[in-house]
Amino acid sequence: MKTNIEKLFSFEGKVIIITGAAGAIGSAAGHLFASLGAHVVISDLNEEGAKKVAEEITKESGVEALGVKTNATVESELVELVEITLKKFGKISGLINNVGWGANTPIWGSDTDKMVKSYLLNTVGAYNLTKLCMPHLEKESNASVVFSGSMVGVTPSPEFIEYSTAKAGLMNMVRSMAAVSGPKVRFNTVLIGSVDNGESTLAAGYTPEMLKALADMFVMKRRGNPVEIAYGMMFLMSDAAQWITGIDLRIDGGGSYKSKMPGKD
Ligand SMILES: NC(=O)c1ccc[n+]([C@@H]2O[C@H](COP(=O)([O-])OP(=O)(O)OC[C@H]3O[C@@H](n4cnc5c(N)ncnc54)[C@H](O)[C@@H]3O)[C@@H](O)[C@H]2O)c1
Predict the structure, then answer these.
(1) Are 123 and 170 in contact (CB under 8 A)?
(2) 5 in any annotated domain
(3) Residue 158, in any domain of the structure
(4) Is the CB of residue 193 less than 8 Å from the CB of residue 224?
(5) What is the pLDDT of residues 38-52, one digit of tens each?
(6) Is 73 close to ligand 1, i.e. is its CB under 6 Å away?
(7) Could you tell me if the CB of 200 is within 6 A of ligand 1?
(8) How many domains, in total, are found in the chain?
(9) Of these four, 71, 109, 148, 177, which has the most CB atoms within 10 Å of its CB?
(10) Is residue 204 predicted with pLDDT exceeding 70?
(11) How far apart are the C-alpha atoms of 114 and 236, rounded to whole Å?
(12) Whether residue 183 has a cis bond before it, omega within 30° of 0
């Protein structure tokens, strides 16, 4: 069988909603999918940022992108996002639930309000938007939903107790969605390691010195670039991944390795 690689990774005619897409990873994904032919809907709480990214994408790719202000934690705004997308482009072929953030909170420093807010932002918003998109995704061929997970949702992460708990919940939610949605719609998570997103990580409680030390801990000796995560999202959404659903794709520069023979390495 001869494989047409270009065709496998073409997104021509597809319409993909990306949340948190004024940020580092979401905007990189927007640029990438548009360069492969997709109409992308750049949704973000930051209206100015969303519109700016959509304009840049349209100019760069020649494929029309749309910037929409959405608060991913407010259900009525998610309803509007779906309506605006359908009105503009007529269908929804894919969704990237990318919104998320978490501050440094020591393990006994959280409370009900902080825990619930983090759960709303990192997990519940993704559930609500996916539910709203499902009737439209089910009409498309090789429809796919990708979620931005985090390595902190897999390994013990007591420094980010709200965020890591919410991201752990997200992963299992995605597996449940995948289990009952085949063969029509595929669901996968990208498990993200530390990626350079400028001010955002600093606002979460890191200093530049801590980030340098963190980068040195990784097998690949650096933090990731946003587009390196977008490449994984692109693979999971592509026709090359038509038999892949319910997985967690780890993209984290190899993570940090500790010898099982301390003192001998
Ligand atoms: N950068 C990393 O190191 C890293 C590591 C692991 C996981 N992740 C995950 O990847 C995803 C993207 O991260 P990033 O690094 O691009 O972050 P970022 O901070 O650069 O972008 C996040 C975007 O989300 C938007 N946003 C915040 N609250 C919102 C809300 N209520 N509704 C809609 N939009 C909202 C922000 O305006 C921002 O544009 C997140 O889910 C994050 O948790 C990132």
Answers:
(1) yes
(2) no
(3) yes
(4) yes
(5) 999 999 999 999 999
(6) yes
(7) yes
(8) 1
(9) 148
(10) yes
(11) 32
(12) yes
Respond yes or no: is residue 167 known to be catalytic.
yes
Instruction: Evaluate whether 91 touches 140 at the Cβ level (below 8 Å).
Output: yes
Q: Among residues 150, 157, 164, 238, which one is catalytic? A: 150
- Rounded CA-CA distance 231/137 in Å is 22
Q: What single letter denotes the amino acid at residue 255?
A: G
**What phi and psi values does residue 144 have, to the nearest 5 degrees?**
-150, 145
- Domain annotation covers residue 17: yes
Tell me which amino acid residue 232 is: G
- Asked whether the whole model's pTM tops 0.90, one would answer yes
Residue 95 maps to which CATH number? Answer: 3.40.50.720
Note down the domain range covering 41.
12-251
User: Computed over its alpha carbons, how large is the radius of gyration of the chain?
Assistant: 18
How many CA atoms within 13 Å lie on the side-chain side of 173?
23
In a domain, 40, yes or no: yes
Q: 107-140: per-residue pLDDT in tens?
A: 999 999 999 999 999 999 999 999 999 999 999 9
Residue 55 Cα to ligand 1 midpoint, Å, equals 20
DSSP string, 4-47: -HHHHT--TT-EEEEETTTSHHHHHHHHHHHHTT-EEEEEES-H
Question: Relative to the CA of 163, which ligand 1 atom is closest?
Answer: 43
